[in-house]
Amino acid sequence: MMRDRLCHRLLLAAAFVVAAGGVEAQQAQPPLWSWKSDDAELRAGLETYTAFYAMSGAWWNLAAASAPTFDRNRSFTELWLHPRLDGRMNMGGGTEAYGAVSVGATNTFGADAFDYVDGRAVRFGSAMLGFRGDLGSLRYDVSGGRQPFTLGTGMLLAMGSANGFSWGGGASTQRRAWARTLLARVSSGEVTGGAFMLEPDEAAQSRTDTRVQGVFAEWARPQMGKVGLSWFTVPRSNQIYPGSLAPLRFIEKGREGLETLHGWADVAGLVPGIPTLGFRAEFAQQRNDITRASGQTDPMRAQAWLVGASWWGQKLPFAPRFSYHLARFSGDKPGTATYERFDPMFWGNGLTNWWFGANGAYAWLNSNIRARRFTLDAYFSAQDIIQFQYVQISADQVNSPVQFGQGARFTANGLLVGVPVAKLSDEIYLQYVRVINPRLVVSAFVSRNLPGAGLKAIAPQGTQPWTTAGVGLTANF
């Protein structure tokens, strides 16, 4: 019984580690205000996050080649305020209506890593309405409006809102709700199937006018994990793709018509006697026909995958949890007509999922990279958690665009793109989280990203390590 209580406290602590890494986590705690009758209920709350960041060597000094006045050393503060109201009402006949409305306010004080100064915005977070109930042995849930939605573990569809730019809050990335959604789910026991239509909430500086629609099926069991499969398409988008060189041309509306098959498995307890040994595997295949600036139409054949394993030594001192992930996101092979560059779309869900490095995630946008990540979590108590990460990034294809739509440069030898050597960076990340109580969490981190041979080869001005330190306070009521 004592060991079960300890495991429960560690699971609660682990949830706060995930929350500190940027994942939306909803804790079962009393709301700031509530009202309840026999057939209806209203709940109100306030979520806040305040963080201070200090950087040196931002972007490894690469900006010196084209923007010599860019300040590599900077500090800035971000503030997030998110009042929310949600409710439900019994409609009779086994049907329940539910809804949520919230407002998210961001403010950045100073210049962030993208050099946006004092960005701020007040925008709706959620504004949605749904109906759910039972149809015999089936349970249904239909909803629409502005709301968060994550497919699988967030490999492709997670961040429904733009973060940063003129809106502020680019480092904290608290905005997640999609601008427009239509979701339908049907469940029977542990199996859920559904369909979705999504349109992102995008800042003017990043507007793509993308619409995504598709279907999914998932099996999930608490304490064990989930397995799922999805197919979706993009009937509309203005997102450009990197295209041909000399002269440099982009592929207009490259994402429009994209079809993706995406599968995921994240499970534990499969090996008898080792219940805390977990396995993870994901893949995505993308198909399309892209039209280049010359008018030529070529096939797009891109892919990505991730495999990993984890083990939690709950009986060991400090209950260490180890995990290792290996991932590949295909790049466009130079000299071929087929377009192989993977489109990461709206990826996210935190540093233990699809952000590869606290600094690296700014630049390595899950396209044309290979990643290796080792993570160690140590629980000194249920209130004090340490996380260590080591992330190594290499280019999947050399001399091919690395950043999405970026990486081209003029040299004495002509126009070059990407990096001539695969190694991009090594990052070491250390985080401390103090859970003062379920409503109040303090975190602090330091991350140091060392440029690899690929970055050094394209920077005649020289490179330097990119170091970031930060502290954050989460206060939810």
Provide a descriptive summary of the structure in words.
This protein has a single domain (56-71, 128-166, 174-476), classed as Porin. By secondary structure, it is mostly beta strands. A hairpin with a 3-residue loop joins strand 9 (211-221) and strand 10 (225-236). The strands form 3 sheets. The protein has an 18-stranded antiparallel β-barrel. The protein has 3 helices and 23 strands. Helices cover 6% and strands 52% of the residues. The radius of gyration is 23 Å and the shape is globular.
Number of strands: 23
Report helical residue fraction.
under 10%
Shape: globular
The CATH architecture: Beta Barrel
Q: How many helices?
A: 3
Helix/strand class: mainly beta
Uncertain segments are 1-27
Rg, Cα atoms, Å: 23 Å
- The name of the CATH topology is Porin
Mean pLDDT: 90
